[in-house]
Amino acid sequence: MTTRRNMLPGALLEEPGANRTARDWLVDLTMFLLAIGIGALVYSSSEDQHGDLARLADVAFGLVGWIALWWRRRWPVGVAVLTLTLSAFSAFVAGAALFALFNVALRGSRRALIATTALGLTTATIYSLIYPDPELPFVGEFALSVLITLFVIPWGLFTRAQRDLLRSAHERARQLEAEQRTHVEQAREAERRRIAGEMHDVLAHRLSLLSVHAGALEFRPDAPPEEVAEAAGVIRANAREALQELREVIGVLRADAVAVQPPQPTLDAIPSLIEESRAAGMTVRAHVDAAGGDLLLGRTAYRVVQEGLTNARKHAPAAAVEVTVAAADELVVEVVSRRAAHPAAAEPGGSGLIGLAERVELVGGALEHGPNPRGDFVLRATLPWAT
C-alpha cells in the first residue's frame, strides 16, 4: 500500500506535511533532464547563428527556465509566462517552456490556458524570425510550433481528466468507508439495545418474584418453617440469577423507552425452529445434543441457528443445511450451508452477522463465519458452557 501511495501524485493525497511523493521526485528529475535535452536539441539547430554573448545569454535564460520549473505546481501561470517569454530569445529554455505550457493545461484555468497558448505561439514566431532555420521555411517552422502545441495541450488536458477521475474515486472510497463504519456502529448499537430490552424483561420477572416472596415473609411472620424455608430458597435462587443477568447486561446501551417483548426462545426451542425451516421446504439435518443451561446463553445459541438458517434461505435456498448443537466443556453451535449449484444473487447488508457477533461477544463467546475449503458456508459459535 505504501508503494502504491508513493506512486500517486502528492496533490491527490492531500495530507499536510506529505505533499511530495516518490513519484513527484521521479517526475521532476525526468522533466528536468528532458527539458535540458530538448533545449540542447533546439540550440544545436541554430548554434551557428549565436555569437559569444548570445550563447551566454541563451544558457543563462535556459538555466533560469529550468530552475523556475520547480515552482510550476504553486504558480503554473507565472512560470509559464516567464519561460515562454524567455523562449522568444533562448533555445535552451524551449523544453522548459513546453513543460510549463503542459502544466497550465494540467492545473490552470481555461482563460489562462488560452492566454499562455497564444503567448507560446507568439514567442515561437519571434524566435523563428531571430534564428531562422536555413533548411525550413518560416511557414514550416510556424506549422511545427503549432503541431507541438497541439500535442502538448491535449496531453495536459487528458492527464488532468485522469487525475480528476482518480481524485473522485478516492473521495468515493473515503465516503463508502465512512458509511460502512457508520453502518457497523448502528448495527451494533441496535443489537445492544435489543439485548438490553431482553434483559429488562428477564430482570423484571426475577425481581417481581423476589418482591412477592419477600412480601409473603413480611406479612406472614407466623408461617410454618417449611413455607419460610421454601420462600427463602426461591428468594436466594432468583437473587443469584438476577445478579448474574445484571452482570451480563452491564455495558449494554439501552433505549430510554424499552418496548415490552414476548419471552425469548432458548435451546429448547431450536428443534421447533428447525422443523419450521423444514416445513418451508429446506433440507435440514440436525444434531442437537444440548438442553437447559443459562437463559442468555440459550437465547444466543438460538439466534446463531436462526441467523444461519436465514442466511441459507437467502443465499442458497436449494442447498442442504446441517445444524449441530453440542455441549461439552463448551457449547458449540454450528450451521453449515452446503454450496449451491445455482446460488442466489448476493445482497448487500451483513447487519445480522454484525449484531450476532456483538451478542456472542457479550456472553464471552467467539463467532466465526466464512467459506470452508469445500466452498460451504460455515457459521460457528463457541460459547462458555456450565453444567
Structure description:
This protein is of the alpha+beta class. The protein is built from 12 helices and 5 strands. The chain has helices at 2-6, 10-13, 22-45, 52-68, 76-86, 94-107, 110-130, 138-219, 225-249, 270-279, 295-315, 351-362; strands at residues 284-289, 321-327, 330-337, 366-371, 377-384. A 5-stranded mixed β-sheet has the order 1-2-3-5-4. Helix 6 packs antiparallel against helix 7 (110-130) and helix 8 packs across helix 12 (351-362). The longest helix has 82 residues, at 138-219. 26% of the residues are buried. The model is unreliable at 14-18, 253-261 and 344-349 (pLDDT under 50).
Topology, element by element:
Layout: H1 2-6, H2 10-13, H3 22-45, H4 52-68, H5 76-86, H6 94-107, H7 110-130, H8 138-219, H9 225-249, H10 270-279, E1 284-289, H11 295-315, E2 321-327, E3 330-337, H12 351-362, E4 366-371, E5 377-384
Write a short abstract of this structure.
This protein has twelve helices and five strands.
Rg, Cα atoms, Å: 39 Å
Counting helices, strands and paired strands, the structural category is alpha+beta
Estimate what percentage of residues fall within beta strands: 5-15%
The biggest beta sheet is recorded as:
5 strands, mixed
Oligomer: single chain
The total of beta strands comes to 5
What labels would you give this structure?
alpha+beta, rod-shaped, 387 residues
